[in-house]
Structure formats: C-alpha cells, structure tokens
Amino acid sequence: MDVRRTTVRDMRRANRAVLLTRIWLDGPLSRHELGQSTALSLASVSNLVGEMIGEGLVEVAGLVESDGGRPRVLLRVAPGYGYLVGADVGETRIQVELFDLTMTALAKAEYPLDVAAPDPGQVVAHLLHGLIAVTEQAGVDPGTVLGLGVAVSGTVERAADAVVHAQTLGWEGVPLGAMLGAGTDIPVHVDNGAKTLGQAEMWFGAGRGARHAVVALVGSGVGAAVITDGVSYRGAHSSAGEWGHTTIAYAGRRCRCGNHGCLEAYVGAEGILDRYRQANRGRPAAGGDEESALGELLRSETKTAEAVLDETVGYLGAGVANLINLFNPERVVLGGWAGLALGERFLPRIREVTARHALRQPYAQASIELCQLGPDAVAMGAATLPMVRLLRDGGVPRSAGAVRVDALPRPGRRPRTR
Amino acid sequence: MDVRRTTVRDMRRANRAVLLTRIWLDGPLSRHELGQSTALSLASVSNLVGEMIGEGLVEVAGLVESDGGRPRVLLRVAPGYGYLVGADVGETRIQVELFDLTMTALAKAEYPLDVAAPDPGQVVAHLLHGLIAVTEQAGVDPGTVLGLGVAVSGTVERAADAVVHAQTLGWEGVPLGAMLGAGTDIPVHVDNGAKTLGQAEMWFGAGRGARHAVVALVGSGVGAAVITDGVSYRGAHSSAGEWGHTTIAYAGRRCRCGNHGCLEAYVGAEGILDRYRQANRGRPAAGGDEESALGELLRSETKTAEAVLDETVGYLGAGVANLINLFNPERVVLGGWAGLALGERFLPRIREVTARHALRQPYAQASIELCQLGPDAVAMGAATLPMVRLLRDGGVPRSAGAVRVDALPRPGRRPRTR
DNA sequence: ACAGCTTAGTTCATAGCCTTAATCGTGGCG
DNA sequence: CGCCACGATTAAGGCTATGAACTAAGCTGT
C-alpha cells in the first residue's frame, strides 16, 4: 500500500524503464515488437526510443528484411553507453571487475586479504584503487562508470549509508556505503554476497526465467537468497534468508553460532567434516583445507564416508524441503562450493529426500537445480546492482564533468591484475 | 521487473488510490492535510476528492475551526457507499458476515456443516444464500455489495477461477471462485483462511503498523501468514507459509502428513496431547474435544504436564526462531486457539526460547506478540479482500442495474441468523 | 461595523504525456 | 513505373497534474 503520488513525469520514466528493460532482456527488438510486447502505442515507442537513441543509451543493432515491406530496425542497449563495476569482498581477497552493459567482463583486479578481520578503511582503499585500476586497464573513462556494486558477507542494511554487519569480517555497523561515497562520486551499491550471487544466477544462470526462486548456498557457511516476483526478498532489515541457522534437529549438534541443531551444523562443510571425524573414531578426512578434505571425503568409498554423506543428503533434503514449504518457489538452485560438490554427485538423491520431506504440492511445483555460474559470479551479481537501477529508472543522464575517485589511502600492496 | 505501460489514466487511478487509502486509513482528513501527506498539489487534491465526493465514495465528516482562518473540511470514506461481505468456510460451519466500509459488522449468518467433507456445490449454495440473507437482514441493496471475500482452509491458486486444494475438506482442485461467479455478478475473492486472519490482524489487530510480519497460527494444524511490505506473501502458487510441516526435529515424531519431525507434530494441539498421553503412561488429558483437553492440560500442575508443556514451548520457540531467521520480520504475531492458550501463559518463556534459537540481530529487530482478534476475524479478513481491491483501484463505479444472486440450489438447512 | 489578516479551497491557463489517425519511407512485385 | 505491404514518423486531440491567481470563511482589533 504505497502512498506516493504519481506525476506526469513518472509516467515517462516508467515507460522508458519498461522499454529499456525489454530491449535489454530480450535482445535486439524492433520498434514494432516493442509496441506489441509493452502495449505502448507505436508513436510512443518511437518517441521514447528516439530520445534514448539521442542520449546514446540505445543504438541500432541491424536490419531485418521482411517480404515486401520496409525492413525492421533492430534496437539494442548500447554496450558502451556506460560501464558497471562489481566487487566481491571475500574472506581471502577482494575482486573488482568491470563490465559493459551486456555484462561482458572487460577487466579485473584482485587484492589479497591476509588478515582475518580486515580494516574497513583498507577495504575501501582497495575498492577505490580497484575502481581506477579496472577502468585504466580497459581504457574506459571513469566518468562513464554508471555504478559500483559491492558484495560483502554479512547483512547490509539498505539505508543510504549501507551499514554492514559481518561477523566473519569482525565488522559491526560499518557504513561501507557512506565510506565509499566519501571517496567517489560514482553511485555505490552494497549488498550481501549471497544475494548478489543469487541475482547473477537468476539473470544468467540456473534461475533464468523463474520469478520465484530460492538460491541455496552451502559452503563453510550456509545461506540462501530468496527471490520473489523477480526481486530479492530482504525482510524488514535485509537479513532475510538466514537458512543456515534454522533449527532442523531440535537439541542436536552444537553449531558455531552457539545454538544447537542448526542446519549449518549438519550440512555446512565444517559440520560434514566434523561429523565424519566423529564417525571415523577421531581421524579426520585427508586434505589441507576444508575444500580438499570434502573432495577427499566425496571420493573415498568407505562405509563410514558413505554413511556420513548419506546422512548429510538427508539433512540437506529436509532443509531444502523447509524452503519449499515456506517460500513455495518455482525453483530451488543449489550452489556454494560444498553444495555443488554434493549436488554433482547426489542431486537425484537430494531431490528424492526433499520430496519425502516437503508437502506434495509445493514440491511438485518446484524444480531443484544446481548453480551454473562459478564463484566469480558474486562480482558479476554485484555489478547487476547498478544495472537494476539503470533499468528501473529508464536510464539516467551520466553525471557531467570529471568524476572524483580518491585513492588517497594507498593500499599497501599492488594489485594482481590480469 | 514489471513490463506494463503506464498511461495518463493510470496516473489518475493511482492518485485516487493514494488519496482514498490515506483517507480510509488515517481517519477524517482535510484536503490540506491530504496535500501534505501525499505530496499532491492542492489543486489536484481538490479535483480528485471532488470527483470522489460526486460519486458518493467520500463524504464530509465535519469541520474543524482554526484560529483566524477558514475552517477545514474533514473528509472520510462514506461508510454506506458500499458493503463488504466476508465468509469463513470452516470445518464445522460456514459464517457469512456483512460489513460497511468502516469494517463495522452489520449482519451475520451461520450454516453448520455436519459432514467432514462437504460438497463444494452445497458450500457454494450456502455462501450465495448467506449473501442474500445478510443483505436482507441489514436492509442493504445487494447491488451495493462491492465484493464477497471467502476464506477456506487449504491453498488457493490465485487465478481467475480461485482453484482450492484443501485436504481437510477433501477438496482437490475445486474452482470455488468460478463456481461462485456462476451464481452471482458480485466480484468474488477467495483466499486461504490463515492468510485472511493474518490480514485482519495486520489491519486491526496485533500487526497494526508493521510492514513485515509473520502471523503464526497454532491450532490443530499449524500454519503461518507472511506479510511483506504490507501485502501477503504467496510464492509461486500461493502455498507459501506452510510452517507446520517444516522439519524441526530430523527423524523425529511421525506427523499426520506422513513425514517425520514436523513442527506440527510437536506444537499442534494433537501433537501436544499425544505427547502428553505418551508421557503419562498412555492416559490422555481429560476433556471432550481437543480444545478442552488442552485447557485441562494447561491448568493441571503435574510434573508430567509441566514437562510436556515446557518441551512444547521449546519447539515452538525454535519454530518461531526459524521464521525470524528466514523472513526477518519486524513482528511475529502468535495466534490460533492453541497458540493463544500457550501464549497467554508462556509468552515470556516463548520469547526467551526464541531468543536462544534465533540469530541475535534478526531477533532483536522483531517483537513477538499475541493475536488480538478472535476467530471471527477470519471472516473480517475475508471482507478485507474486496476492500483492498477498492483501495488499490481508487474506488470503482458500482455495477449498474440489478445484481444477480442465484440461490437456486437451496441449502438443506435454514441458517441460524442472529 | 469594517478593514485587515489568516487559512482553506477553487478556478484557470499551461505544459507534459500518450493515443489515434494520417502521412512518410523503403523495399518487393508485376 | 505504378502498386502494394509494412515500418516508422508526424500531427491533432484528449487527459492529467501544476502553479498562480482568486474566492471563501472566520478571527481580531479599532
């Protein structure tokens, strides 16, 4: 129940947004097709499209002949109208990537983080430095960068300051958006990494075409990105989707969150390896880090390993069933490095177990798939944040004049660019 | 990412909707105040309000003097512009109620259902008969009834036909909306009863003022209505919120759904009484029906009862914590007859247990309250369905001419009106 | 009693938007 | 070269909200 007036200008903006979104999503289209699919009159389509061509936002993509008539002019969003920068602040490194408007990656910079709890100021410095680095690398004027999207772990309150709470980084109420905004005029968007990965999967991966989906991510931690009606579900304070710490086994295993019986304690990588160690009389799976240990476990064919993995699939299926019962999605996309490792081997069994635990009808309405994009998709998903804004606003005039990007607090380490 | 054009007429409709909603929600308001709070120009407010007064939709509610100026004219939605009928198809009776636009109940009819799986045709006949009965009783022209909202148990697919799937009624794909539409011209809205009760609580009960809330209902069955951004969350096929059959105790008690470890098997009335019986060496709690048995259990102070109830609160808290983690609401409203019975005695402990199971931050952002409205609120919530439509559309002209309501297939039983 | 002030609400000219209908542009066909 | 088919543009018209000027209604002080 929104209480905002509508003015005559909103109308034009809304219609520009409709056209721009169609053109961007459904590839090159003629004015005629645009008229059909948007129900706008051809005159308005011409008018609005003409304006956008004048701004350089839309361009002619080619002609298509018709039998005995004027050939149709195909239109597309001009890939070089502007550029998008997406950044992924991970636990071990910061990745910054530059995309054009077709979401083609043009440049990339990476900054290792070797401390467990990096200083926010240093992260900001890395990000601003990365912003300059990728534009230089791609030979792109920073003034044409439409926005910087940043993905971080933890919850991000959607206020103007983009306050970040991240236990894994040791951040408590860091106004990352405001800090970045102090260093550059380029519009900044900050969001949770699971949500940006989910966004990327929805647009370019296993979620394509779905309007209601849950992207379930299983790694060391366990989380989910919920998409309803095409947009990310945030809840009152943007922390919705905390799937990992829902209770699935009342009074069960202790979880690192301090609680008992969390899903994460059973299907998170740490939980799986820990359970294997217990089942294996204290001897852990081989492998240096968690990832190789889990790989080893998946390859080994001992009875103990089988039993532990079987149990894991059981818990995972029950957890996915809970998502299906509560959110009634049309698709569940399973991802995260551990989720993919499990899914690649056990997907049919996961489906089976889920079917047993979920209500019949919601289960029948949902399909369960695996993520299609690699972990780099977090940065791409972050870059979709400014893209969404561009589409929603029907394109905005680029800021005039030189764009300020302060990289004053020089990062202590040169980026590894490639 | 909607793909609908906007025309100049949509604008007027949208602004009418904004004004009407404000007037309806925030009581009598002057044109000036409306201008302030909607950001519409005074000229437009006057224009739009004038139109709505002309239609009889809005009326003058009084004057308020000001020191040295023209007195303000207060406006309100005319209560008698139209009427709303809400119906609750319960397991034992059908209740039909007539409301004016201030949601004041004016008439009521009740039809007992004595079979476990009532024939859809008979239910439709009862509903149509009730529609006539309440209008006659209140002396209201059926032509002024703006809509009939019907609440049923089970899931309701939101298509035009309002297909109902209800295991408890033994209905499988009953197009209740289409069947009712065949019997009357009055616009029909069908929705799930938990969702309509949730809607009523949100507007008039414990949910007032919240934009993100979960109404958790515990009775014989267990379910939840999720409200996000002021509207009911439905998911892909309208069956979202199936909280009762989420797994909370992996490989736990068998549930009537056939699965193991469902929340409902622990905190549903049947589950509680069953667990008590087991703990009490096979002797059930006294009392005829479930409701009085649970009441008896709550009053008894034996150690066994205490233990069972304590455990119940534990499971319930964990279940509520799951809702908080997944949906990040600003409020959780606990209801349903068993939920209220438990909540009245144990609310502080429920809060405590929930705090232990939920993540700290989402828990701190949510408050846990009890439902404030009685079970009659299901019908009132159903009546809000046409009200929502009226507000969303900014008022619609009433259908001209006589309104058809066929009550041909006479119900076999006279209604008990009062 | 009446001018002067204050606040509420209305009227009117204007700019902006989309739509329908007519017109222009471009290519194929006989 | 005339005709036709189809795409795109231009022109005329109907709606909408807005701002400025204007009217309405009540209070205050002389």
What's the helix and strand layout?
Two copies of one chain form a homodimer.
Chain A: H1 8-25, E1 29-30, H2 31-38, H3 42-54, E2 58-66, E3 69-77, E4 83-89, E5 93-100, E6 105-112, H4 120-138, E7 145-152, E8 155-157, E9 163-166, E10 171-175, H5 176-183, E11 188-192, H6 193-204, E12 213-218, E13 222-228, E14 231-232, H7 264-267, H8 269-279, H9 290-299, H10 303-327, E15 331-335, H11 337-357, H12 360-364, E16 367-370, H13 377-392, E17 416-417
Parallel strand pairs in A: 4-7, 7-11, 12-15, 15-16
Antiparallel strand pairs in A: 1-3, 2-3, 4-5, 5-6, 6-17, 8-9, 9-10, 12-13, 13-14
Chain A binds a DNA duplex (30 and 30 nucleotides) through helix 1, helix 3 and strand 3.
Describe the overall structure.
Two copies of one chain form a homodimer. By secondary structure, chain A is α+β, with helices and mostly antiparallel strands. In chain A, 41% of the residues lie in helices and 22% in strands. In chain A, the strands form four sheets. Chain A has a six-stranded mixed sheet, with helices on both faces. A five-stranded mixed sheet of chain A has the order 14-13-12-15-16, sandwiched between helices. Chain A is globular and about 75 Å long. The termini of chain A are far apart. The interface between A and B is large, with 74 and 74 residues.
